[in-house]
Amino acid sequence: MHLESLIQQQVNIPANSAGPALTLHFAPGETIHTENSYKFTPPAISRLLHATRFTPTHTFQDPHHLFAVTLATAT
């Protein structure tokens, strides 16, 4: 996902455990990349985890099985 600035602006991000405070300057039309979203089937997640030496421990799904989060442990 990209967010696009509609105006010239300054964004202040306070210091946190990830690093020091930042000030970002955006021009009109400038974008910032905010996330990647990937879709996997349960078998694909299992294969990916096993290939990287993890074992799926539990999968949490919404009632309609549209979203899931898989907990895994290192093996």
Question: Outline of this structure?
Answer:
This protein is mainly β and 75 residues long. It is 13% helix and 41% strand. It folds into 2 domains: 2-33, no CATH class; 42-74, no CATH class.
Description:
This protein is mainly beta. The two termini are 33 Å apart. Helix content is 13%, strand content 41%. It has 1 helix and 6 strands. The chain folds into 2 domains: 2-33, no CATH class; 42-74, no CATH class. The strands form 3 sheets. A two-stranded antiparallel ribbon has the order 1-4. Strands 2-3 form a two-stranded antiparallel sheet. The mean pLDDT is 93.
Termini separation: 33 Å
Residue stretches low in confidence (pLDDT < 50, at least 5 long) are none
Helical content band: 10-25%
Number of strands: 6
H/E series, N to C?
A: EEEEHEE
Secondary structure class reads mainly beta
β content, as a range?
35-45%
**Biggest sheet architecture:** 2 strands, antiparallel
Q: In which order are the strands of the major sheet placed?
A: 1-4
